[in-house]
């Protein structure tokens, strides 16, 4: 167990491309990294959590930010398993969850403090649940995809490439039922 090994594992996310974009016609050299996505998701999470808190909703802002920072940590080992791939195999979601849980445990095992291992593992579990904090992170995660679509369109990619994805992401955000309105 070594904090340095853990940190070096996390650094690998800078070089893991978000593979789903390739399915939508984005050139591999232009795909965002998982680290870039994680940063933007965390930043959006902070803003959304603070906004809800200012509106009087009981939200643990620190927990939401930690959850956002950790939500794709398993991809250090699994890389980015695209939804397109999961749709192609019937056991996709169940298989991905099983793989992700094992990868998360393996990565967190490098933390030298058992209490941190346990706390961070709990964050992964809660992310899969329906707490207000997990819903905020999921909304931020989805909203980042919409922002990335806009970025790719500004780089010359056709809107048609992303139409179905945009609609699916809007449905995902609306299904969270936490009162988000995104004027994009």
Query: Based on DSSP secondary structure assignment, what is the total number of beta strands?
Result: 0
The DSSP helix count reads 10
Radius of gyration: 17 Å
> Which CATH first-tier class would you pick?
Mainly Alpha
Report mean pLDDT, rounded to a whole number.
88
Q: Report the portion of residues in β strands.
A: under 5%
CATH superfamily annotation: Hypothetical protein af1432
CATH topology: Hypothetical protein af1432
Q: What letter string, H or E per element, gives the SSE order? A: HHHHHHHHHH
Uncertain stretches of 5 or more adjacent residues: none
Q: Can you tell me the CATH architecture?
A: Orthogonal Bundle
Domain count, please report it: 1
The shape is globular
Structural category: mainly alpha
Say what oligomer this is.
Answer: single chain
- Share of helix, binned: 55-70%
């Amino acid at each position: 167990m070594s904090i340095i090994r853990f940190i070096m594992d996390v650094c690998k996310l800078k070089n893991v491309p978000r593979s789903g974009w390739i399915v939508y016609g984005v050139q591999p050299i232009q795909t965002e990294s998982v680290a870039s996505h994680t940063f933007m998701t965390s930043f959006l999470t902070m803003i959304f959590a603070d906004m809800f808190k200012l509106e009087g909703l009981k939200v643990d802002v620190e927990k939401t930010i930690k959850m956002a920072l950790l939500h794709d940590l398993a991809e250090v080992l699994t890389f980015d398993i695209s939804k397109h791939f999961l749709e192609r195999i019937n056991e996709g979601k169940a298989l991905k969850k099983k793989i992700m849980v094992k990868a998360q445990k393996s990565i967190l095992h490098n933390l030298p403090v058992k209490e941190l291992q346990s706390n961070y593992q709990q964050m992964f579990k809660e992310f899969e649940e329906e707490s207000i904090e997990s819903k905020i992170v999921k909304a931020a995660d989805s909203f980042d995809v919409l922002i990335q679509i806009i970025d790719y369109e500004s780089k010359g990619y056709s809107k048609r490439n992303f139409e179905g994805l945009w609609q699916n992401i809007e449905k995902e955000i609306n299904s969270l039922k936490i009162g988000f309105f995104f004027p994009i």
